[in-house]
Amino acid sequence: MNYFSRKNIIGWIVGILIIVNIGAISVFAYHIYFKKDFSEHRPQQPGPDSFMVHELGFDKMQSEQFAVLKKAHMDKVHAFVAQIKQEKKLLADGVISETVDTLKLDTIADKIGVLYASIRKANTRHYLELKKICTPEQQKKLAEIFGNIFCCDDKMDCRDKGKGQHHCRMENEPEGCKSKEKSTY
Known about the structure:
single chain; two-stranded antiparallel sheet; 2 strands
């Protein structure tokens, strides 16, 4: 009997493929039915919320208040961002259109500026609301964190772009913006 004839080679290949497929299906079935929670094996990355809670040393009640304030703030900011995207789309459409209406483009640009200012105001109000739930010691830490955030904005030199705002350095930093601690909030 010749094990390496054309018929036998095709039979061996089909047999091996069947065994591999059965093995793969078994592995998937095992993971689906016996290992329901894959997240328990994944290390948890601390997010900005847990950073703030940990850094400021919030107790359970403060953490709950923080979560409510953060959600309300983010909902507000996301609404502004959505409006900014719509206005930027209108601006882009207006710029590339055959007949450019500069007055309309200026109005849209002004709307975008107002929306950015609204985000800045919302951030300021959010800080003031957070300050209310903090103890005096926590307020000092909060001031350090938000001081870096508020100052790292215009006229900045971001040497490590893509690594978050805490890598930004302003050319002439105001006194309140200089901090030894780096913020990731």
